[in-house]
Design a protein that fits this description.
The complex is a heterodimer. By secondary structure, chain A is an alpha/beta fold. Chain A has a single domain (2-235), classed as Purple Acid Phosphatase, chain A, domain 2 (4-Layer Sandwich). Chain A has helices at residues 27-30, 46-55, 77-86, 129-150, 178-181, 184-192, 223-226; strands at 2-7, 33-37, 63-66, 90-91, 95-101, 104-111, 156-161, 197-200, 209-211, 217-220, 231-235. In chain A, the strands form two sheets. In chain A, strands 5-6-7-8-10-9 form a six-stranded mixed sheet, covered by helices on one side. Chain A has a five-stranded mixed sheet with strand order 4-3-2-1-11. In chain A, α4 (129-150) packs parallel to α6. Chain B is an alpha+beta fold. At the A-B interface, α7 and β11 of A face β4 of B. β11 of chain A pairs parallel with β4 (80-83) of chain B. Bound molecules: fe (ii) ion (FE2) (2 copies).
Chain lengths: 241, 84
């Protein structure tokens, strides 16, 4: 068995330094890895990125992250990524990583993802340049996720995104904004690559549990949804014990 | 000058709460009735709650702003879910 701890949307800033880390002391006894589903900062500043890097360093388990829209708000996503990597945190954007766990090899591929909407009610690459750019960004993110997942050699595959792959986990959010909360192409990428689990954040008012059309479980781990410091998911690594 | 309609006050304040660097809160519900402004939704800490109310008061002067926000709790039990 492999146990994954996951949380997103911690939205840390200077004022919250140390408060969240306090809750993470038990992680090495509980989980094989901690996944961070983006929106780690409030405004995406370099200073907040430093708080994030220091809050999640040396936790005794591998920490694997994607960034969220807030982490892009100040155009400092590269600096934030570097600060986090400097503290040993794996930051994924269209890449994958494999963690050797006692229960098997855990493969995690991650992208921020983007909006675009859900099958039958989604935006299309048609019309104004701005619309096409919006839709293309969502499609390219999903393609990158699928490619990264398929490139992994592991016993258990997890897709980590900030935006939602399904709309079930958005329940509680106003339906009018669903196209800004997720993109069904992310779910298709999970389905097509044999992933066992999709983990996302972003939808603070959503719900935790959902599933893709292909039966892949999806969990919204946004901190306001969880109401606990992190979620723990225990899964069977096919090749593990 | 004609009084701004409540729907537009709501839209303007929600945009301000999202875009003002003191708040950048996207999930605050705003209801305006006459001169009463009700704020509901969840924020991460007391400091952010104060910031939301401050931005609301600045954006809608002459209104009574009611703080019905809640501060998120994250102290729940980390019970594990088994996914077969
Ligand atoms: Fe968020
Ligand atoms: Fe977000």
């Amino acid at each position: 068995m492999i146990t994954i701890a996951a949380v997103g949307d911690v939205h840390l800033d200077e004022a919250m330094r140390g408060q969240y880390r306090e809750r993470l002391a038990g992680l090495p006894d509980e989980a094989d890895a901690l996944l961070l589903a983006g929106d780690l900062t409030k405004h995406g500043t370099v200073d907040e990125g430093r708080v994030v890097a220091e809050e999640f360093r040396d936790l005794g388990v591998p920490v694997i992250a994607v960034l969220g829209n807030h982490d892009h708000h100040s155009d400092a996503q590269k600096e934030i990524t570097e600060l986090m990597r400097g503290e040993g945190i794996t930051v994924l954007e269209g890449e994958g990583t494999v963690v050797d766990c006692p229960g098997g090899r855990l493969g995690v591929a991650g992208v921020k993802g983007f909006g675009g909407g859900f099958a039958g009610k989604c935006a299309t690459e048609f019309g104004e340049r701005e619309t096409k750019d919006f839709v293309r960004h969502g499609r390219e993110a999903a393609e990158a996720l699928g490619e990264a997942l398929r490139g992994l050699d592991a016993d258990l595959l997890v897709g980590l995104t900030h935006y939602a792959p399904v709309k079930e986990t958005l329940t509680g959010e106003p339906p009018e904004i669903f196209p800004f909360l997720g993109n069904y192409l992310l779910a298709e990428a999970l389905d097509d690559s044999g992933a066992a689990l999709g983990v996302h954040g972003h939808a603070h008012a959503g719900t935790e549990c959902g599933v893709t059309a292909g039966g892949v479980r999806v969990r919204n781990v946004a901190l306001p949804v969880l109401r606990r410091p992190y979620a723990l998911y225990r899964l069977d690594g096919a090749g593990g014990g | 000058m004609a009084e701004e309609r409540p729907q537009y006050k709501v839209g303007r304040l929600r945009r301000a709460l999202a875009e003002d660097p003191r708040t950048n809160e996207l999930g605050i519900e705003v209801r305006v009735r006459d001169r009463d402004v009700h704020l509901t939704g969840e924020v991460a800490c007391e400091e952010r709650r104060r910031a939301v109310v401050e931005v609301a008061r600045e954006n809608l002067p002459g209104h009574e702003v009611y703080d019905e926000l809640t501060v998120a709790r994250i102290d729940g039990d980390t019970a594990e879910e088994r996914l077969p």
